[in-house]
Description:
283 residues; alpha/beta; 6-stranded parallel sheet; two-stranded parallel ribbon; 10 helices; 10 strands
Amino acid sequence: MSNAPNVPVLMYHHVHPAGGMIAVTPEVFEQQIAGLARAGYTSLSAQQFADYLAGGTVPEKSVLITFDDGYLNNWTYAHPILQRYGMKAVLFLITGWLGQGDVRPYEGQGLPVPHSPDHHESKRLVAEGRTDEVMLRWSEVRAMLAAGTFEVHSHTHTHTRWDKECGPDVAAKREHVAQELKDSRAALVRELGGVSDHLCWPQGYFDDDYVQMAREAGFKHLYTTDALGQNLPGTNPEHIYRFAVRNLGGSWLNRRIWMSRHPIVGPRYHAWKAWKRRLRNRK
């Protein structure tokens, strides 16, 4: 088996009928997942991906599919599609936002599916303490784990940017970040029986203090929202590149993956995107 030249990491948040900000519709998501399956891509587990970064071998056409936050629509819409095509994804949970209760219906079961608000409405409901209307329940997480469609890792406990909350008080920032990670790990152990060394940063933000706190908490694989690089064997596992998936069809995603993973085109494409970003920032 020839090894993958690199492994693109895809970043999703919502799958719901309205589409919109950081969301894809179920129809588009199915096109994308079906397109990956038809093209012969393997969706890796986080451990397979970690082994690859450490020098291991994975199928030549490999991707890592990730979801951030833990919205209910990951269960109601994404789960049945992943199951239909035999694909799996990595879910980074905001552990403090999940609740208890019975498993709710998902699309395709012939039962009414819970309403899935858009991202702005989801944020408002969470701020009002109505997290159960938009977020997963632990029972649904366990059902996805049992089905093999998702595996679960930490996205902190409250998704708070402590660098913003604490301002120049570095000691307070470090203390809060350490507590966030401790609480998240404890929730995953309590509800799921264990916790991994994979962590995704809220809003993609991190600094040296954040990274140090993650190390001290036992996290070794740190996921960013930085799209401008390739995940190669020997890549720093504390800076994992991911790109956001748009609400566009499977052919778009396959082209985007091809550009990201190509050993010659990929670095040039990322350099061009970085140049465009610098131009925008100067305006």
